[in-house]
Each structure stands twice: as C-alpha cells, then as structure tokens.
Amino acid sequence: MTESHTHAPAAPAARNAAPEPTDPLDGIEPTGPMEPRAPLAATDPGHSIDAEIFSVGDWNGERFTRRDLHEIARNFRRLSAQLKPPLKFGHDEGQTLLGQRDGDPALGWVQALWVRGDKLLARFAGVPRVVLEAIRAGRYRRVSAELYFNVRLGARRLGKALKAVALLGAD
After folding, report:
1. Taking the model in full, what pTM does it have?
2. CA 152 to CA 1: how far, in whole Å?
C-alpha cells in the first residue's frame, strides 16, 4: 500500500450512541505472562460513540467532494482486513502518553463509516469510560480525520482511505 496523509478539518464533538454500562472496570488487566502480538482480553469492552469526522469542503489546500467521502467509506469496507483506524489524542506523531517511541493505546477503533449528506460519520467501538467522560465534559470538542491518499491494493488503485481520527482539545 502506498500512502500519503493529511489532517482533515475538525468536526463537532462525538455523541454517545449507547447507554453507559455500569461495570466499574476499565482497561486491560493481564493475568500472566504475555507473548508478543498475543491478543489481549479487556475487562470492559468500552463504549460506542457515533461522530461526524469529516465534511465536504476545502481542507489543507485540497478540495473534498461527496464523491471523496463515498470513496473513503467504500475503502474502509474494502480494506477492513488491512486498515484498522484508531481514535487517538491529537495529530502529533511525536507525542506519547508515557514518553516511549511507540505503543500508545488506541482510545477506540473505527467500527463503521458512512456518508450522510455532506458529512462522513464514524462509529467508534471500545472507547474507555474515562475518554467518554472527557468528551461529555467538553475536554475534547472536536475531532479531525487523518487520511491516506493514493492507496493501492496490489495493482488496484483505491484512492483515499481513513488512517486515524484525532481528538482535539486545546489544539
């Protein structure tokens, strides 16, 4: 897959799509030694949030149309085995939660992507309660999509695809 990316415009804050579970446990609690790349079991599957993440318009010097939005949504489905766009804090590739070079946790994962009018919407799954509460409290009022351009799968050119979605607070 070839790629380039841009940071898309900030969209309005997310809306909670499901009632909040009452389970007081959040996060991952390993019970023994873990193998590299072994799947982790979460004690709380997290919450689901639907949010507008992108819209038709001129962003970062590029014009985006409804056709582009449909291409991004279509490629999300086509590339579901190859791309798993995360929800993350901000756009800065150098920022880390604990100062490490990689391995920051995803704040959720894009589970579905669809177009409604001039807007691209996403459903995020696995959002920890603490993140959901920060969104509800207004600490993150906007989101911003990161896109790949010129994505190819083998010899087939697919075009634009969603890379990640960043939560924006004081940015």
Report:
1. 0.70
2. 5
